[in-house]
Amino acid sequence: MDAYDLLIDGYRAFRKRYLGDAAEDWRHWAGKPQAPRIMVIGCSDSRVNPAILTHAGLGDLFVVNNIANIVPAFAEGRHTHRSVGAALQYAVTVLKVEHVIVMGHSSCGGVRALMSGIGDIDEATQDDYVAGWIRELEPARAAVLADMPDVPFEEQCQVCELEGVLVSIGNLLTYPFVRAAFDEGRLSLHAWYFMIESGDMLSYDYEKGEYCRLIRPLG
Question: Which UniProt keywords are present, listed alphabetically (predicted)?
Answer without folding.
Answer: Lyase, Metal-binding, Zinc
